[in-house]
Write a structure and sequence with these properties.
By secondary structure, this protein is α/β, with parallel strands linked by helices. The protein contains one helix and eight strands, in the order H-E-E-E-E-E-E-E-E. A four-stranded mixed β-sheet has the order 2-1-4-6, with no helix packed on it. The chain has a four-stranded mixed β-sheet with strand order 3-8-7-5, with no helix packed on it. The longest helix has 23 residues. The structure holds copper (II) ion (CU).
């Protein structure tokens, strides 16, 4: 029986370690350093729908669908909009902290996203 004790202890440690890793995965990841972040403009959704970036980050929107879309700020620390297009990309450097709510003005009910600048 004495031989089993260390084995069971190791198993218990493994369970605890797994639980700790599980918690680490579920906590929000810190915003990455300022650089470029890509958001896909698809038919009919932005992907991802929410991003958190550091101030000074350039967000590059890349059109992936077949239908015209644009990128328009609904509310936020600054206001901007891309032209409506079907392909290519459009980049915007975000220099003010805050929460930007964006939409495609052509499909406003479907295509919305949030950018948090921290
Ligand atoms: Cu659209």
């Amino acid at each position: 029986m004495r031989i089993r004790t260390p084995t069971m202890t190791a198993a218990a440690v493994a369970v605890v370690a797994t639980a700790v890793v599980g918690v680490a995965i579920s906590t929000p990841t810190p915003a990455p350093a300022a650089g470029t972040r890509t958001v896909d403009v698809k038919d009919f959704a932005f992907a991802p729908k929410t991003i958190t970036v550091r101030r000074g980050t350039t967000v590059k929107f890349v059109w992936r669908g077949k239908v015209f879309h644009d990128v328009t700020v609904v509310s936020g620390p600054s206001s901007f909009a891309s032209e409506a297009k079907r392909r290519g990309s459009w980049s915007k450097r975000l220099t003010r902290k805050g929460t930007y709510r964006l939409q495609c003005s052509l499909h406003a009910m479907l295509m919305r996203m949030t950018i948090r600048v921290v």
